[in-house]
Design brief:
This protein has 8 helices and 26 strands. The chain is of the alpha+beta class. It has a domain of about 230 residues: Purple Acid Phosphatase, chain A, domain 2 (4-Layer Sandwich). The chain has an 8-stranded mixed β-sheet with strand order 1-23-19-22-18-17-16-15, with helices on one face. A 6-stranded mixed β-sheet has the order 14-13-12-24-25-26. It has a 4-stranded antiparallel β-sheet with strand order 2-3-9-6. Bound molecules: 2-acetamido-2-deoxy-beta-D-glucopyranose (3 copies) and fe (ii) ion.
């Protein structure tokens, strides 16, 4: 009897799996060639005026969203490090003092890179800010997020592997039309390391390219392999040198020992940023930090637990296949235990979304080497399709693995709109002949609040085992 029941369930499993089978979109779109925009293009325009601030970018400056770090570059002289700000246009009654740094990379000399922490801000408030001096001063604004609250709605954009081609520009422009309030950037920014001597000029152009978005809203940074820039042949042996000089992160607010991994909370989300290219195995600082940070996550306050990394743990593209495997071995059991909602990664230059699956029962002595449906597991999203000069990763593994829900090799970006503690609308938007086309859409049910509700409902309705099996497959659709 028991055996028959098991067989029935296995058959059900098989058919449900077929019915839900993943989709490989045959659509492929790369309108423009994978070459960088020329240096003299207006996308990289240098602002007018002596020593005018350029490459202006902001990021969250604290744990809970009441601070920003404002960064900019001056080229003729250091100038001052001051940010003037206030809540009314043209009335800058507040002032913050930052610092300045510069670096060399082989024969490249950077400009003067300013970082200024502006803190004690009010939530849900528009701030105007001004940097630079006299005639060449520039003015921008940003909006602070709502207070940390489980039902605070908020719209994030997700961009990865952006680079600086016309495809990159298209992705950026589409994102800017999306209504996204903050970008979760999953690594590989400028691709300056593709140039002779990792020409830092291409860091400057990239930072001017993205300024129209990132001067007005925070981009939450994570580092990719193109940020490592380890060039012992050029005498450049300190890793992540340009990236770390240019991009400040609020890592100390989450008790991290490195700007490369940290966490922030924003609206109803707890966002954990990891570094695929820093040590993360057991006993390393990143491992210890993550272990502690996960314990600090309070889903009653921030229901949405989101992790960013560069190299995807699940991805079925031929490119970079299994490069995230070592991090999967180190961290997947925690991600399942803590019911992470979504893990965003880049690296692979195509789009892919997984079902909720895990492979935590696998060890090298057990034979369970296939990922299985797991309702506690995150959904894995690879969005390394920003549009950089390396082009698309168009060769997917065939057949499509069962864990893969949707994949397509086109450029684009994603948005994640947190509605309340239980629901979030997620969308991937391809760049289609220069048009922004919503392509992959799913409604996420929160892994903490959604499943609490479901568990109560299941108990009340006395669902049978096979019905709850269906319920768990349904969950794979979220
Ligand atoms: C930084 O700028 C100062 C002042 O111009 C200069 O003296 C110094 O050499 C620069 N440092 C580096 C590392 O480029
Ligand atoms: C390996 O995995 C199997 C199956 O999950 C489990 O029974 C076994 O205890 C594991 N071995 C070790 C050493 O953890
Ligand atoms: C949460 O948002 C979803 C989607 O907009 C909506 O259907 C649901 O009713 C909301 N829940 C609550 C408790 O407001
Ligand atoms: Fe990468």
């Amino acid at each position: 009897m028991g055996q028959q029941r098991l067989l029935l369930i296995l058959i059900l499993c098989y058919f449900v799996q077929i019915a839900l089978g993943g989709e490989t979109s045959s659509f492929m779109r790369s309108q423009w060639p994978s070459t960088d925009i020329p240096l003299d293009n207006e996308a990289f325009v240098v602002p007018d005026g002596h020593n005018a601030p350029q490459q202006v970018h902001i990021t969250q400056g604290d744990y809970d969203g009441k601070a920003v770090i404002i960064s900019w570059v001056t080229t003729a002289e250091p100038g001052n490090n001051e940010v003037l700000y206030g809540t009314e246009k043209n009335i800058y009654n507040l002032k913050a003092q930052g610092d300045v740094r510069n670096y060399t990379f082989f024969n490249y000399k950077s400009g003067y890179i300013h970082h200024c922490l502006v803190s004690d801000l009010e939530y849900n408030t528009k701030y105007y800010y001004k940097i630079g001096q006299s005639d060449s001063a520039r003015e921008f604004w940003f909006q602070t997020p709502p207070e940390i609250d489980p039902d605070a709605s908020y719209k994030f954009g997700i961009i990865g592997d952006l680079g600086q081609t016309y495809n990159s520009l298209s992705t950026l422009q589409h994102y800017m039309q999306s209504g996204g309030q903050t970008v979760l950037f999953v690594g590989d920014l400028s691709y300056a390391d593709k140039y002779a001597h990792n020409d830092g000029i291409r860091w400057d152009t990239w930072s001017r390219l993205v300024e129209p978005s990132v001067a007005y809203q925070p981009w939450i940074w994570s580092a990719g392999n193109h940020e490592i820039e380890y060039r012992p042949d050029l005498g450049e042996v300190s890793t992540f040198k340009p990236y770390l000089h240019r991009h400040a992160t609020p890592y100390m607010a989450s008790k991290s020992s490195s700007p490369l991994w940290y966490a922030v909370r924003r609206a109803s989300a707890h966002i954990i940023v990891l570094s695929s290219y820093s040590p993360f195995v057991k006993y390393t600082p990143q491992w210890i930090w993550l272990k502690n940070e996960l314990k600090k996550v309070d889903r009653e306050k921030t229901p949405w637990l989101i992790v960013l990394m560069h190299a995807p743990m699940y991805n079925s593209n031929d490119a970079h296949y299994m490069e995230g495997e070592s991090m999967r071995a180190a961290f997947e059991h925690w991600f399942v235990k803590y019911k992470v909602d979504i893990i965003f990664a880049g690296h692979v230059h195509a789009y892919e979304r997984s079902y909720r699956i895990s492979n935590i029962n696998y060890n090298i002595t057990s034979g369970n080497r296939y990922p299985v449906p797991d309702k506690s597991a995150p959904v894995y999203v690879t969005v390394g399709d920003g549009g950089n000069q390396e082009g698309l990763a168009s060769r997917f593994l065939d057949p499509q693995p069962e864990y893969s829900a949707f994949r397509e090799a086109s450029y684009g970006h994603s948005t994640l709109e947190l509605k309340n503690r239980t629901h979030a609308f997620y969308q991937w938007n391809r760049n289609d002949d220069g048009k922004h086309v919503p392509t992959d859409f799913v409604v996420f049910q929160n892994q903490y609040w959604g499943s609490n509700t479901r568990r109560r409902r299941l108990k009340k309705n006395h669902h049978s085992w096979s019905q709850s099996l269906f319920a768990s497959f349904e969950d794979m659709l979220v």
